[in-house]
Write a structure and sequence with these properties.
Blueprint lengths: L19 E4 L3 E7 L10 E8 L5 E3 L5 E3 L1 H14 L5 E6 L5 E6 L7 H13 L9 E7 L4 E8 H13 L3 E7 H8 L8 E5 L4 E8 L2 E9 L4 H13 L14 E4 L4 H12 L6 E2 L2 H4 L4 E3 L7 H9 L5
Parallel strand pairs: 1-6, 3-16, 6-10, 11-14, 14-15
Antiparallel strand pairs: 1-2, 2-3, 4-5, 7-9, 8-9, 11-12, 12-13
Helix pairs in contact: 1-3, 4-8, 5-6
Length: about 300
């Protein structure tokens, strides 16, 4: 994979800068060391946030959000409050900002350049006709299966641009579910799955043999049972029969209170299965502190701390 593609590094937990930002349609969130003159130790963090106006984004190709000048303004205010020199940072965006695809490509890892060409051709039309230039990241997931993240280059570049203008190099660009999953790594040691349902999407990540085997993002409808059915359908792709999964494997889910998460917990209770492990600050970062304390219940703050996980 090209080192010029920051999505390329999102799947591999390479060392990270000790700072992270989360960009959503409603706000910009920063997480870093509690003492701005020192690196984060894994025990003490601070979280800062600035709201964004309703017109902070415009609709780009395939509906992807393109960041406007308001994001740069919020970043400048955030940096002034942070009071720290931030030469590099990770950036997390909501799962719904990008498209997550599962497809088949023979010998993907043997021919990475050809694989990227195939994915560009396969995925391009999902964003419109003619297809726009895409930012693509992929990884092999067993057999011929390939998991890929894709976003229009115009949108991805607009998310990074305010940071570049502020002298901050974005060293990793990833989605919230993958950022949180870095903190939940113990859940992924055997056959297991994770559901992250912050905002208007739910992402399911399925693991086996210590590796990611399948992933799917779907919109969250008002009907929680329908959303849960989508998770079961995603799990069925891993079964030989192709039927709807019983979701009996160990799992983790969050944020607490999300309708699909509560539906999953109820589903497991009805079948006398262990409860889903919480994707929450107290469970994933025991002993750590965050300032202000209210940030410990903020899903965006948890995603930001997940983006720091590669540095600890």
């Amino acid at each position: 994979m090209s080192e010029k593609n920051p999505f390329s590094r999102s799947f591999w937990r390479s060392p990270r800068p000790p700072h992270a930002f989360v960009l959503t349609k409603e706000r910009l969130v920063y997480a870093g060391p509690e003492d701005p003159t020192r690196r984060a130790t894994g025990a003490a963090f601070r979280v800062l946030s600035r709201p964004l106006p309703d017109d902070a984004f415009t609709e780009g190709p395939g509906g992807a959000p393109v960041a406007g000048p308001a994001v740069a303004g919020a970043l400048q205010r955030l940096l002034a409050e942070a009071g720290a020199k931030i030469p590099g940072a990770s950036l997390v965006v909501p799962d719904g900002f990008v498209r997550l695809f599962a497809t088949d490509v023979e010998d993907a890892e043997k021919n990475p350049r050809e694989t990227e060409d195939v994915l560009t051709w396969k995925l391009g039309r999902a964003f419109g006709d003619p297809p726009p230039a895409l930012r693509i990241s992929w990884r092999a997931a067993g057999g011929s299966r390939v998991l890929a993240l894709a976003a229009p280059e115009a949108a991805a570049a607009s998310w990074e641009a305010p940071f570049e203008k502020a002298g901050i190099r974005i060293g990793a660009l990833e989605t919230a579910a993958f950022a949180v999953s870095a903190l939940a790594s113990p859940v992924a040691q055997g056959p297991s799955f994770l559901v992250w349902a912050d905002g208007d999407t739910a992402t399911s990540l399925f693991f086996a043999d210590g590796a990611l085997r399948f992933a799917r993002t779907r919109p969250v409808w008002s009907d929680a049972e329908e959303a849960l059915h989508e998770v079961r359908l995603a799990a069925s792709y891993l079964s030989a029969s192709g039927g709807v999964s019983d979701l009996a494997e160990p799992c983790a889910a969050g944020p607490a209170g999300a309708p699909v998460v509560e539906a999953l917990r109820a589903f497991r209770r009805e079948r006398a299965l262990p409860d889903a492990a919480p994707l929450a600050f107290s469970a994933l970062l025991p002993g750590a502190t965050v300032a202000p304390p209210a940030a410990s219940s903020d899903p965006a703050a948890l995603a930001a701390l997940g983006a720091l996980a590669g540095d600890r």
